[in-house]
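Let us practice reading a record.
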Amino acid sequence: MAEIITMPRLSDTMTEGVVAQWLKKVGDKISEGDILAEIETDKATMEFESFSEGMLLYIGLKDGQSAPVDSLLAIIGEEGEDIDTILKEFKATAPAGSKAPEVTKTPEAPKAPEKVTEIAPVKAAETVQVPVSANTSGRVIASPLAKKIAEEKGINLNTVSGTGEGGRIVKSDVENYVPTTVSAAASVSAPIVSGTESFEETPNSQMRKTIARRLAESKFTAPHYYLMLEINMDNAIESRKLINELPDTKVSFNDIVVKASAMALKKHPKVNSQWFDDRTRINHHVNVGVAVAVEDGLVVPVIRFTDQKSMTQIGAEVKDMAVRAKSKKLTPAEMDGSTFTVSNLGMFGISEFTSIINQPNSAILSVGAIIEKPVVKNGQIVVGNTMKVTLACDHRTVDGATGAAFLQTLKQFIENPVTMLA
């Protein structure tokens, strides 16, 4: 008997999905476990496997088409089986919000970049005719009073038209005179300018739309405030060199920051909290999310129980997840459950910045570049290395003093990485 396949809910926040690519076509034999299609969710692109056997009789969504969860995706059954009745029944019983079969006709191709619009050449500015005195003999004919008023007002009588007898300039002509501005474009022929305006539009992916929605919700619902601290990195630089001399050890500055954040969170659990409308949750476990830039925006894979892992383990996990994030191979489970987030733009030379909190978490740490600059040590100006970090806090859960105390503890760990090796 034919079986209806609907758009699956592949993550707890997924409300609709996009068929990125069908890997099977109508008429193909399907076995249990075969990958039918790749589905783009709000977090990742995932392979969707079949739990049924038979022939693929119907495809309800084409490549690139989106639909809400539980919309008709496909029908699998026996060869030659009539699916018209099934489609009608699904249409009649389809849950609210799901797409009925008729909307799954071949969709219009995604809009190509808009055609370039030709802009007509701009005409050269026409020469402005400046009014001159009606007298063309070269001599200005004006009454003594008109000349006196013109001199006081700084008016060139050659530009004034006379209304008196024979074009004579009188008092009223000067008093009512309105100067005509001669523009550079009028006196000098402007070059003919021609060109084209062009742009390109691409559809927003499910990931980009979800990122936009969640960041907007966070920025405009959570009362953000920011605490910035400058950390002396001289000892951290030397300690990292020594740590990396150990066999099978490779630690980055980001690994040091993530580990230090996890250990500081254990000492300041209020920063490791989450806000919900009816309650505040203080987490006793530490799951640090590490922001990773991908083509469609930003994803945050989660290092679970970060405080219990070594810097080497943290580094290996971050590297693996970053690679898979860029190829959209992370699972939703690997991006859920963070209690705190670290965002590092230091590798791009950014000295300091602020981030938007990844709700429902209460805080996010922004990490800048290590900068070599003059610093004061023991009353002397010497060359030193510093790094600025900025903690964005949700004031509903984290007070200023609490956030400041967290940063002081974080600073101690980063400036002395060997204290985190035990």
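A brief commentary: The chain has three domains: 3-103, 118-197, 206-420.
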